[in-house]
């Protein structure tokens, strides 16, 4: 049983490396043979294993990531033409991109750019690709409606929060990936801590923990949203099983410092959204992450102390 579990973990780590490769090379031609080489599988075995573990074929996953990246660029980078968006997401021509985009979203790219609400909508709330209002954990927000939010938005944000634009350092991290509902990422953290502890990699407070988000919940179905439970490391670590390694890019971020209860994460994110609507800044390309500073179970009020870090365009 132990051998089977280790084998499954190793296979999952190989598939995670393929996902990371796709994310870094989204603007380039990518074929099945290349992805199989990244995973160290034969092309035939890779296709079967990827489909089994991810629930999508490699080609379906690649196409979805391309079109979802395009949706992000269409909404956040108005200066890019539709053809520039298409080519930057790896499509060979605009007509192919247009057909694929309309098939996925049900509207053409021009209409999507002009009308779709997204993560940084005017009222600062998350929306799915069909306009469904979402809460921070991706569930339907049955207790709040958009009309109420636009009128009483001050009740849904955290006042007197320190928010600033600053340079954040590059961070080397090891991670365990979680795909699906936000609140279940604790399972990935449990695996990560269990792996890191006997290797003496948990040297708090020098060691930082963070959650890195790869997908936009306004365009990606919640069950497919990828999040990495991470801890920082100071050297190149040999990883195995489900544990991977990557570099979180440094650069200019808007950073909001929060001290919140477990139930206030949505308010914290709404606060960041509101900041964007009033600041004149636009979200930049790169991964958003939450950087944690304490063990909330040791806090006298059980509060989480964290930064929400969102890359911004350099003006």
Task: Write down the secondary-structure element order.
Answer: HHHHHHHEEHEEHEEEEHEE
Strand content: 15-25%
> Overall mean pLDDT score?
84
Structural class: alpha+beta
Query: What is the β-strand count?
Result: 10
The gross shape turns out to be globular
* Low-confidence runs: 117-154
Please state the CA-atom Rg, rounded to the nearest Å.
Answer: 20 Å
Number of helices: 10
What is the percent of helical residues?
25-40%
The largest pleated sheet is described as: 8 strands, antiparallel
The span between the termini is: 55 Å
Q: Largest sheet, order of strands side by side?
A: 3-8-10-9-5-6-4-7
What does this structure look like?
The protein is an alpha+beta fold and 315 residues long. The protein has 10 helices and 10 strands. The protein has helices at 2-24, 32-39, 43-54, 58-76, 82-88, 94-105, 109-115, 146-151, 186-196, 265-279; strands spanning 126-127, 133-134, 162-168, 171-179, 209-213, 226-232, 243-248, 251-260, 288-292, 304-311. Strands 3-8-10-9-5-6-4-7 form an 8-stranded antiparallel β-sheet, sandwiched between helices. Strands 1-2 form a two-stranded antiparallel ribbon. A hairpin with a 5-residue loop joins strand 1 (126-127) and strand 2 (133-134). Helix 1 packs across helix 2. It is globular, with a radius of gyration of 20 Å. The termini are far apart. Residues 117-154 have low confidence and may be disordered.
